[in-house]
Recover the amino acids of this structure.
């Protein structure tokens, strides 16, 4: 019995499946200055903010920044905090406060 040899196909190419590209790492940019620490999230640059929401329960606290593209960043806060918010105008030589809000205390703190 003769064995049949398989003829090579010259015109057909074999497709290689592409491996999924790894997601870009979400790195923070940290700066230190005179005992202070600044942390930036550069991947959020250019996104349009739809709303900012403070969420607090007895076990969980976060500040959520919701973007127009239906994504959001949750900044999770450890217990026992008071949040003081101010709206600044940085167009002049020095920053000036345009408006301030009353402080928000976490749900576990008792204030009379």
């Amino acid at each position: 019995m003769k064995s049949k040899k398989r003829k090579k196909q010259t015109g057909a190419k074999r497709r290689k499946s592409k491996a999924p590209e790894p997601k870009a790492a979400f790195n923070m940019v940290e700066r230190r200055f005179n005992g202070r620490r600044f942390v930036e999230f550069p991947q959020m640059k250019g996104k349009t903010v739809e709303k900012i929401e403070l969420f607090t329960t007895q076990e969980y606290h976060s500040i959520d920044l919701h973007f127009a593209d239906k994504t959001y960043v949750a900044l999770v806060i450890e217990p026992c905090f008071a949040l003081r918010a101010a709206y600044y105008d940085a167009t002049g030589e020095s920053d000036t406060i345009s408006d301030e809000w009353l402080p928000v205390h976490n749900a576990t703190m008792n204030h009379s």
Q: What stands out?
A: The chain is about 0% helix and 40% strand. The two ends are 100 Å apart (CA to CA). The longest strand covers residues 49-56.
